[in-house]
Structure formats: structure tokens, C-alpha cells
Amino acid sequence: MEERTVERIGIIGVGEIGRALVLGLYHGGDESPQVFLSPRGARTAAELSSRYEGVQVCATNQEVVDRSEAVLIAVRRQDRHEALRGLRVDDDKLVVNVMAGVANDDLRRTLGTDAPLVRAIPLPSVRERRSVTVTFPSHPDADALFARLGGVLPVADEAAFNVFSALTGTLTTHYAYLATLTSWATAQGTAPEDADRYVRGLFQGVGRALSDETRSLHQLAADHETPNGNNERIRTTWFDSPNSAALHKALDNLLTDLQ
Ligand SMILES: NC(=O)C1=CN([C@@H]2O[C@H](COP(=O)(O)OP(=O)(O)OC[C@H]3O[C@@H](n4cnc5c(N)ncnc54)[C@H](OP(=O)(O)O)[C@@H]3O)[C@@H](O)[C@H]2O)C=CC1
After folding, report:
1. How far is the CA of 13 from the centre of ligand 1 (A)?
2. What would the pLDDT profile of 11-67 be if each residue is shown by its tens digit?
3. Which CATH superfamily is domain 8-155 in?
4. What is the mean pLDDT of residues 108-133?
5. Where, residue-wise, is CATH 3.40.50.720 in the chain?
6. How far, in Å, is the centroid of ligand 1 from the Cα of 21?
7. C-alpha to C-alpha distance for 149 and 164, rounded to whole angstroms
8. Predicted model pTM
9. Distance CA 221, CA 235 (A)
10. Is the CB of 131 within 6 Å of ligand 1?
């Protein structure tokens, strides 16, 4: 199948991720594509349409489908039936399903269409075109769209897709871990703003180190660790085998539910 640049994109569900997708599409002053938004999430939709000339808010979800070549479904999983049931989606449209935990079979039953359906996991950093988006199945137009938003990682089957989906479930734990570090420092008498500033700086450095892809993650850990030093001590006394096994177990359980 030949890749084409999708010029008319619809988004049903204009919340956190819907907004991030629109910002990403216009990042860097791009003037295209045209974007058609569903009416719900009215405040965000109005903000986006006043900010970008190419963004229009539609009167109904059906109008979003009718005016678009590709439709991104970004409502919460529990809202999908209310948002989508009864929509007419012609077979020449491309549907991109960004809902976590909703398989393509499930979505196809709800939409009753033979149009190509692609699952995708865009992250909020698509807004700066910095998210590598996992897709399944690979479709040239969807892959080109996400390549433009920071990168695309098409995977071979839905089982592999679910593994990546489980990984994204660890993000807020990471923030909570950083918040726990600052709470601990505050409990020791450090001013909260000093603890907050310091922890942010510490882990912004980690973020920068991660962009060096010539070093493996194990190598990065080793490079930051002095033998018998403080880092080794916390890693081996806190992130020890039982703790690591508990993380594996939590991911296993999440993966089972995603399947
Ligand atoms: N947030 C993220 O980082 C990511 C989220 N996702 C997935 O994207 C989906 C949306 O998540 P998120 O953006 O965080 O959720 P939000 O709650 O921020 O946004 C969901 C939006 O859907 C709207 N909505 C609800 N019902 C309808 C309807 N019938 N028709 C049209 N729009 C409707 C809501 O409108 P209203 O405000 O009026 O209720 C709201 O604006 C989820 O399925 C999630 O799994 C995927 C990847 C990343």
C-alpha cells in the first residue's frame, strides 16, 4: 500500500491526548492538515479552534467522520459505545484507535465497518513531536502520521502491542516515585521547594542521559554507580530482587487484563 499524507484528520474525544495530538500536528508552525473535532470536551475544542485556523469544531461525531480521511478515536474506554454506536464509517476511511485496552475486534463490532482500523499509543509528548508511537497493524498512512509526531514503532501483532501498552502504565508510578523522594527530603527538614527543585534537576539529567542511545540501559546504570557507593546501596537494598519481582508481577497482571 502506498503512503499518502492525510490532510483531513478527525478527532472524536478532545481531552488530554486529543489536545496533545492537535498541538503536535501544528507544532513548528505547520499549516496543514485540517482537523475536525468532536463537540464534547467543548472548552478544549473551542481553545484549539481559536488558536489554529485549520481546526474546526463539528456539530456531531458523525460530521467528524464525514469530513475526515482519518478519524482518531480518543474517548475514554467506558464512553466508547455512547460516542461511537450508530456512526456510519465508510470503508475508505482510516480509523485510528488510541483507547487503551480496546482491541480492534471490539472497536470493529461497535462501528460495524470494514474500514482499516489501527491501534496506536500516542503519549502526551506528541505535543512536541517527541513521542515514539506504537502502532498495530502497520498502515502506511497511520505510520506516516505518527512518524511526523516524533516517530513510529509498528509491531507485528496485538500481543506485542499489549506489552508496550503495559509499559506505558508505569509512567505515573515514576512521577509518584519522584514525589516520594521529595516528601522524604521534606520530612528530614529540607524546604519543600528546595527538595522539589533538586529532584527535578537530578532526573532531568537522567532524561538527557537516556537520549544517548549508544549506551544500553544497564550500561547507563553502571556508569552512574560507584562500587560500594550510595547508588549501589539504594539499588541493592531497596530495588532488590523481591521488589523487582513485584514489578514484574504487576506488569504480568496488567498484561493479562489487557489481553
Ligand atoms: N492521556 C494520555 O496520556 C493517553 C490516553 N490514551 C487514551 O485516550 C483516551 C482518552 O484519554 P484522555 O485524553 O486522557 O481522557 P480525557 O478524559 O482527558 O478525554 C476524553 C474526552 O472524551 C470526551 N467524550 C466523552 N464522551 C464523548 C462522546 N460521546 N463523544 C465525543 N467525545 C466524548 C470527553 O468530553 P467531556 O469532557 O465533555 O466529558 C473528553 O474531552 C482513553 O481511552 C485513553 O486510554 C491513550 C494514550 C495516552
Report:
1. 5
2. 999 999 999 999 999 998 777 789 999 999 899 999 999 999 999 999 999 999 999
3. NAD(P)-binding Rossmann-like Domain (3.40.50.720)
4. 95
5. 8-155
6. 12
7. 18
8. 0.88
9. 10
10. no
